[in-house]
Specification:
Largest sheet: 7 strands, mixed
Number of domains: 2
Distance between the termini: 11 Å
Bound molecules: zinc ion
Order of helices and strands: EEEHEEHHEEHHEHEHEHEHEHEHEHE
CATH class of the largest domain: Alpha Beta
Number of strands: 15
CATH architecture of the largest domain: Alpha-Beta Complex
CATH topology of the largest domain: Quinone Oxidoreductase, Chain A, domain 1
Mean pLDDT: 94
CATH superfamily of the largest domain: Medium-chain alcohol dehydrogenases, catalytic domain
């Protein structure tokens, strides 16, 4: 099978490797779509991924064979790669270890993941794709679970005003989750015109171009001079945490969703006087996946406008795609189609 193997120094090579055999309690999955996640792009940019790793954790596929002792799944079942409940002791290290540093411990080459034609999952790992949700949209269930968790862990309340910084995939999903959770007004700040357009398409009440306008001033003005109740920082960029803390209203909530991989200078006295709450979130738990799949299947999260024709690539173009994505990008959600 073809697999995109990280070879170090920002180099991904598509290689032919054997199709893995499902062992006891495992299923072999033929991957249909694998979405490219900003986390993998950061691992590439900062050369953090271990040599030999096949990354990719946002994919849909179907079961092609099952190992011994698997009763939950049979051939042909349509699945997404996660959302299942781990048995005790099998939780991700992030949930299991009390001190966990994702940057240092988050990437492994011990198993092949979604940038390959086939992969192995433990039988408890995947979730069934609901009827009416197609495989393409199902591949985005993982980032949807991330924004569901972010909204659930924020203190967003019915009727709150919300700012979303960054309209990459996470921002576009987050603004929809915030709406579904009852936001009164959602304002999106994003430098790329195409992404601002998609944000409006998906129901943003206003958009701001931070390269033209002072986004702090504009968003405070758009919220009656008070600032938003909740700011979701979805930009994964160095300056936005500061922007978020500057614009949020007194006693408001800043939720850090997409992460910068650089040191961010902050002067606490600038914002501590507002009694701001700064919250973090990471990944999704099984319940967040269930909520995410519900929101997709009821259309409260609409994925169609996020995937433009130009966003599809073949596995052989993965190096190019990553090189594009480390530059300021205009793509919305890049997806590998198998
Ligand atoms: Zn991801």
């Amino acid at each position: 099978m073809r697999a995109a193997v990280y070879r170090g120094n920002q180099r991904i090579v598509v290689e032919d490797i054997p199709i893995p055999e499902p062992g006891r309690g495992e299923v072999l999955v033929k991957i249909d779509y694998s979405a490219i996640c900003g986390t993998d792009v950061h691992a590439f940019l900062y050369d953090i991924a271990p040599v030999g790793a096949v990354l990719g954790h946002e994919f849909s596929g179907h079961v092609v064979s099952v190992g011994q002792n698997v009763s939950r799944w049979s051939e042909g079942d349509r699945i997404v790669c996660g959302g299942g409940t781990p048995p005790p002791g099998k939780e991700a290290p992030l949930r299991r270890q009390s001190q966990y540093n994702y940057r240092l411990e988050g990437f492994s080459n011990s198993r092949n993941r979604g940038y390959a034609e086939y992969t192995i999952l433990k039988d408890w790992e995947p979730s069934l794709v609901p009827d009416g949700v197609d495989q393409l949209h199902a591949s985005l269930a993982e980032p949807c679970s991330v924004v569901v968790r972010a909204v659930r862990l924020s203190n967003q309340k019915l009727g709150d005003t919300v700012a979303v910084l960054g309209a990459g995939p996470i921002g576009l999903l987050c603004m929809q989750a915030a709406k579904a959770a009852g936001a009164r007004k959602v304002i999106v700040s994003e430098p790329a015109a195409i992404r601002r357009e998609v944000a409006l398409d998906l129901g943003a009440d206003a958009v701001v171009d931070p390269t033209v306008d002072d986004s702090v001033r504009s968003i405070i003005d758009l919220t009656d001079g008070l600032g938003p109740h909740v700011v979701y920082d979805c930009a994964a960029a160095k300056p936005t945490l500061h922007t978020a803390l500057d614009m949020v209203r007194k006693k408001g909530n800043v939720m850090l969703v997409a992460l910068a991989w650089e040191e961010v200078p902050l002067l606490p006295v600038d914002w501590a006087g507002k009694e701001v709450q700064l919250n973090t979130t990471f990944g999704g738990e099984p319940y967040d996946w269930q909520v995410a799949l519900d929101l997709i299947s009821t259309g409260q999260i609409n994925l169609q406008p996020m995937i433009l024709d130009t966003d599809f690539i073949g596995l052989e173009n993965i190096q190019e795609a990553f090189e594009d994505l480390i530059k300021p990008s205009t793509q919305v959600q890049m997806v590998i189609k198998f």
